[in-house]
Every structure is written in C-alpha cells, then in structure tokens.
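anyone seen this seq b4? input:
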Amino acid sequence: MPGRIAVSNRAAALWQTATLTEVRRETPQASTFRFAVPGWAGHLPGQHLMLRLTADDGYTAQRHYSIASPPDDTGHIELTLDHVEDGEVSGWFHTVAKPGDEVEVRGPLSGFFAWPGDRPALLIGAGSGVVPLMSMIRHHRARDLSVPLRLLVSARGPEDLIYAQEYGAETTPVFTRRAPEGVPVGRLAAAHVTPLLADEQPPGGWEAYVCGSNAFAEHASRLLVAAGQPVDRIRIERFG
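predicted toks r here
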C-alpha cells in the first residue's frame, strides 16, 4: 500500500537520548522543538512519544507528546508544545531549554491514531491538536501521495494558527474569535464538514482523524456522524 512504513515495536520500549538542535516560534504560545535522535527507529504519522526530563536532584517528569515531523526526517523528530500555564515540562521548554540540551524519549507509541498514507484522510484539529495531523500532511507531501487528504483546523485567530505558513489547498482554517477581513468568525460547524462528506467523498470514503480538547473532539465527532461518517471510521485523540 502507498506510504506503508515499518516501525519497530521493540524500539518503543527503549529510552533514547534526544539532543535539542533548534527552536522555532510558531505562535505567541507555541514553539516547535527539533531534536537529533540518532537511534530513532521511525514512526507513523499520528503517533506520539513519551518524553522524560531529569533534574539535577534526580527528580523526573514524564509527558506524552504527539510527533509533528514526518517519518522520512531520519534521525530527527520535532515536537510542537503549547506553553501551558504552570506546566512543569512545557514551562521548562519555553523558558529554559536551549540547543544542546538533552532529554530522553521513548516511542513511537500507539498505532490507533496512525495514518501511513494508505487511505483517504479527513483531518480535523483545534489548537495544538493539529500537531499529529501536520505529521500526516508532511508525510503526504514528502511521499507525493495521490490519496486524498483534507484538513479542517480551528484556531481562535490567525495569530494562533500553528504552522500557518505551511498550509496549502488541502486546508480550511476556521477562526472562532478573530478572522481576516471577509472571513467569517465562528466555531466548527456542519457547513464546514458536510460538503466534504457530501460533495468530495472519495472512492471508499474517508478515514476521519479528530484531535483536540475533550469538548472539541466531542463536537467534531458529532458533526461527522450527523454528516454521514461511519462511527467506526472516526479516530479520536483528545487532551485536557
């Protein structure tokens, strides 16, 4: 099948050293952190990893983070993190971390939300929920896949739209509070979802991937079902 990727389950159990090589600001509250991980065995778009920080006194903190980079970025992975108020790990990344710092990572984890590029994908995300979906988009472009892919991404305003410079014709942004002139403001609605299922239905139908807060995931999944998307072809990754 197009885009199929081999991933070692055994490697997912091993902690590896990841060296921070670059920090890129995406929005006022989100940045992308690029790491060199020479032993990284690869991942599927949509998977996540476990990250571990260890303080000088031996205290450790662990968090799950979605992987933003495509599988073909050999020896490197990218994570895009919101700066969460009072966030123990995200706070360190946004205020202390610098190139050369080392953390530990283990993964990739979970195949449920993975998309190797072998079926039409309808992606719906809000805020930092777009991170694993961007891995899918980047994979689609890197492999020049012909399988249909569409993204609906929700953000409060243009300045909050993560990866704003990377979106193309496959993407429809939805702005809930502020929008460019001439663009309507409002939450994700049936008017955004229904045309994709009624007018652009590819052969075999869509596999839907929804990622965002609990409330957004519930709202988006209801819209999908109401528009005719089979429940067993909706994959949900939620947080908060």
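The first helix runs from residue 88 to 95. The first strand starts at residue 16 and ends at 27. kinda curious what u guys think
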